[in-house]
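Deliverable D5.2: sample structural annotation.
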Amino acid sequence: MARTALITGASSGLGAEYARQLAARGTDLVLVSPEEEALAELAAGLVDRLGVQVEVLVADLLVQGQLDRVVHRLAEPDRPVDMLLNCAGFGLHLNFERNEIDDEVRQLRLLVEVPMRLTHAALAPMLSRGSGRIVNVASVAGFVPFSTYGACKSWLISFSGWANGRYAARGVTVTAVCPGFTHTRFHERMGLAVRDMGLPSWMWLDARAVVAGSLRDIARGRARSVPTLRYKIAVVLSRVLPTGLVGSITGGAR
């Protein structure tokens, strides 16, 4: 596994879980998030318990100057980053017509532009070394009609698949991790109460299992990691069911 991993969105959710599991494997970390207090607490715990080196980089990736700091960190030749994990993100209600368009543009930038820029920054030094892992946290929503969130994740899945095919032979793999509904603070931040979403319990995944399974796929250099057999089947069905039917099902989720 990587010697040093840079993780965006590291203060909570899957980003924080990647930090914990990678640190347990002896990987040093660069943790990126605008939430300074949460980052500091996570970093201190990992250093105390696991003895890894943890660098905290407080940055709002939607602020150009702060994003540039992360880009520069990825390019530092004397402190190479072996694994980049693009985990930062947020979602909006599916009521596109009622959402503020500026919020929609911010979501598009964070889910598409930011990982593209960071992937571009990480690629050159990784290719020069002949090794590296890039991980883009997408979603099964990227396989189905799911408002602008699904469209953004679809881009990420497509781009990751292309990039993996392009660069894997040169030692750099790119993996899109595509979880389904996962127990994190993500839905809470969207203003959705999990208890009110009306989803059966089998649709919910544990963040620790999602991360552990994806790390196995990442180590194998796979272009895509979809957790659990049930979600793998859901992805296959999304390709054969009529688009209108799939859209009516997913569009009912709130």
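Annotation notes: The CA atoms of residues 44 and 54 lie 8 Å apart. The two ends are 38 Å apart (CA to CA).
The annotation will be released with the project's public dataset once the embargo ends.
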